[in-house]
Specification:
Strand order of the largest sheet: 1-13-14-12-11-8-9-10
CATH class of the largest domain: Alpha Beta
Family: Belongs to the class I-like SAM-binding methyltransferase superfamily. DOT1 family.
Structural class: alpha/beta
Organism: Melanomma pulvis-pyrius CBS 109.77
Protein name: Histone-lysine N-methyltransferase, H3 lysine-79 specific
Largest sheet: 8 strands, mixed
Order of helices and strands: EEHEHEEEEHHHHHHHHEHEHEHEHEHEE
CATH superfamily of the largest domain: Vaccinia Virus protein VP39
GO molecular function, one term: histone H3K79 trimethyltransferase activity
Number of domains: 2
Catalytic activity: L-lysyl(79)-[histone H3] + 3 S-adenosyl-L-methionine = N(6),N(6),N(6)-trimethyl-L-lysyl(79)-[histone H3] + 3 S-adenosyl-L-homocysteine + 3 H(+)
Length: 510
């Protein structure tokens, strides 16, 4: 047996980090718990928070460390980052949260407009093979965590059930809200028509006492903004976006005037317009002309899914045995950049090892249409991942977007036969191994020997420094199989820190 290290080609890549506007900090959803086994090191604070840590709010200086010894030529990639607000934020999530603040821990996501300015409304490269609009019938298989397909669910009468905004302010949550129109006999219940033939979503016109909680009116406003910007012709979009008499402006004015009748009338007009544009195929033509989903729309849909399935139960996710076994969340703009760098598209296979509540898996299926897999060992995150997937399927129909197939497993990624099989086909593998011990990184590196040539492994700790120090390997079989590049994420990319973090992309070259 041989005990020598594997040799992996490496390159260090410095990324220019643009200083963000100080007024707002982004946050959103992405890959949650990283894990599998007890890692070494200290788990970060706020790893169950979708808001980056507020202890550091200044842009990080790009790394000046010398490049690691490499068999390949070093190069520097300059990549400008635009820091823009994301839709969801968790109000609070401290590792020190106790039973005393459990009531407050149920706070749901604080929302802000997900619409990015036109100059920064980022999209991935157009995927000409992908049809964004749901085709009837949609023949693509969208697998759930228990292996059932969307078609199978339909045959059994178990189509994904939408969690309406109305449900978020009723029942056990009713005490968290007050009327949006004081003085009315009862709260007005309204409907929002989405750009599909699906039935409208229902909302109650209430506002939260705590601004960090779910806000039905904001959900309506932000969803309308996305529909106006991305589903309608530019001239009509410009008219409806007017700050004087645009659709959202009329709704806000009605709230300011305390006029539920004006609010209902303005929303009815918008709904009628959307139905008309569905009937005359205007929305169909717009959707069929695009081949990439904008990041702002991706964030809006993922935020809605997360708000309805995970945020109300954040305190349950924080109460885990051995908090050091998990790390944090990769936020959607960071994940968007990873997808762009790895050229993930609808023909690709994506695997997230340690997928947590499934955020990155869902973003992959939604934004790229890729066949997307995830596996998570912890019980609660795995359970909520299944709930998120079900809600995403229902909500994607509402938004008229065809998803890539989704498969979520609850188990150990080192001992899963289905994961072993799919890894042989994978194009991109994500592993948030930030605090994995060397032995676990070594076991992963052994597993990566079966990856096909050209597969890219994205990690938050280098497999040169982690997995290469442990395990028994044949140097002749692993030497020079990978080329690894180092990147800086830019600020506000992960939930556990506001500063830039390093990450690595290793490509199987032979």
């Amino acid at each position: 047996m041989f005990t020598s290290k594997p040799k992996i080609r490496t390159r260090t890549v410095a990324v220019t980090v643009k200083k963000p506007a100080p007024a707002r900090a982004p946050a959103s959803t992405s890959s949650a718990s990283s894990g599998r086994r007890k890692p070494s090191g200290t788990a970060p604070t706020g790893r169950y928070s979708l808001t980056p840590s507020n202890r550091v709010r200044t842009p990080a200086v790009p790394s000046r460390e010398p490049a690691r010894p490499s068999l390949s030529v070093s190069s520097t990639h300059q990549r400008k980052r635009k820091v823009t607000p994301s839709t969801p934020q968790w109000a609070s999530s401290s590792d020190e949260s106790s039973d005393d603040d459990e009531a407050g821990a149920r706070k749901r996501q604080k929302t802000s407009s997900s619409t990015e300015p036109a100059t920064t409304n980022r999209s991935l490269e157009p995927d000409l093979q992908r049809r964004i609009r749901i085709q009837e019938p949609d023949s693509r298989r969208q697998e759930s965590g228990n292996g059932a397909t969307a078609a199978g669910e339909k045959k059994a009468g178990r189509e994904p059930k939408l969690v309406h905004g109305l449900n978020m302010s009723r029942g056990e949550w009713i005490k968290d809200f007050k009327p949006a129109f004081p003085g009315s006999n009862e709260n007005l219940v309204v409907e929002l028509q989405y750009p599909s033939m699906s039935r409208p979503e229902r909302f109650e016109t209430v506002v939260p006492y705590d601004n960090s909680n779910f806000n039905p009116l904001d959900d309506i406003y932000f969803s309308m903004e996305e529909i106006i910007q991305h589903y309608l012709p530019s001239d009509l979009s410009a008219s409806l976006s007017s700050e004087t008499d645009g659709a959202v402006r009329l709704l806000k004015r009605a709230v300011g005037k305390n006029s539920p009748d004006d609010f209902q009338a303005a929303l009815n007009d918008f709904n009628s317009l959307i139905r008309k544009k569905l009937e005359d195929k205007t929305i169909t033509k717009v959707l069929d002309a695009i081949h990439a989903i904008p990041l702002s729309l991706t964030k809006r849909i993922l935020a809605q899914v997360y708000q309805r399935t995970v945020s109300p139960y954040a305190h349950l996710l924080r109460k885990v045995k051995g908090k050091e076994t998990t790390y944090g969340e990769l936020l959607p703009p960071f994940v968007h950049g990873i997808f762009q760098q790895t050229s993930l598209n609808s023909a690709s296979v994506f695997v997230d090892l340690g997928s947590g509540v499934g955020n990155v898996v869902l973003q992959s299926a939604l934004q790229t249409g890729a066949e997307s897999w995830g596996i998570e060992i912890m019980d609660n995150p795995a359970k909520y991942a299944i709930r998120q997937a079900a809600e995403l399927r229902a909500r994607a129909k509402l938004w008229n977007i065809s998803l890539g197939p989704i498969t979520l497993h609850h188990g150990d990624f080192l001992e899963s036969a289905p994961i072993d099989t799919v890894l042989r086909r994978a194009d991109v593998v994500l592993c948030n191994n930030k605090v994995f011990p060397e032995k676990l990184n070594g076991a992963l590196l052994d597993k990566f020997l079966d990856l096909k040539q050209g597969c890219k492994v994205v990690s938050l700790a280098s497999f040169v420094g982690g997995g290469a120090k442990q395990g028994v390997r044949n140097e002749q079989s692993i030497a020079n199989l990978f080329e690894e590049e180092r990147f800086d994420s830019g600020t506000y990319s992960v939930s556990w820190a506001g500063e830039s973090v390093e990450y690595f992309i290793a490509t199987k070259v032979r």
